[in-house]
Amino acid sequence: MRSRYLTNSVVLVLGGFLAVASMAFGVTVFTWLLFGAGIATLALAAPAVKVDSRGRAQRGLDGLIGLLGAWTIVASMVFAGAAITWLGFASGAALIALAFIGLTIHELSTERVVHSIEVHSSARERELAGVR
Predict the structure, then answer these.
(1) The whole model's pTM is what?
(2) H helices within the chain, ranges in order?
(3) Residues in CB range of 46: below 8 A, 6 or more apart
């Protein structure tokens, strides 16, 4: 399993958590949850952008996830009230979408091994058929 699959899965769960928490918690609690989720998102995406073993699409996606994490941190400290609730929900939905795209990129780039079975007749069967 590649590390990108795991980090995209974590971003997907984090985005889902933000989307649900934005509607489940009060504004003050959700503000700090949003701040922590922004830090976690940025921490997951920042190292992945520098690694050269991934494709350009995945690195670009990591950059977008990092920008979204930075925006989430800023939004959690600047906005208040209903704005923070809906911005947090939007950040969660965007993280879900970006993680889903990342998982799709991972699935499309994974090499597939096709196994085929060749049927050979045995020497005894060739003898019986008169073929040498």
Answers:
(1) 0.77
(2) 3-24, 27-50, 56-78, 82-109, 123-129
(3) 66
What dihedral do alpha carbons 65, 67, 71, 73 form, nearest 10°?
Answer: 70
Residues contacting 76, CB < 8 A, separation 6+: 31, 32, 34, 35, 38, 84, 88
What's the CA dihedral at 4, 7, 13, 19 to 10 degrees? -100
Is the pLDDT at 126 greater than 80? The verdict is: no
| Residue 30 buriedness (CB in 10 A; 0-12 / 13-18 / 19+) | buried
Query: What gap in Å lies between CA 95 and CA 91, rounded to an integer?
Result: 6
Structure tokens of 14?
A: 């984090």
Calpha distance 76→33 (Å, rounded): 9
User: Within 13 Å of residue 75, how many CA atoms lie on the same side as its CB?
Assistant: 24
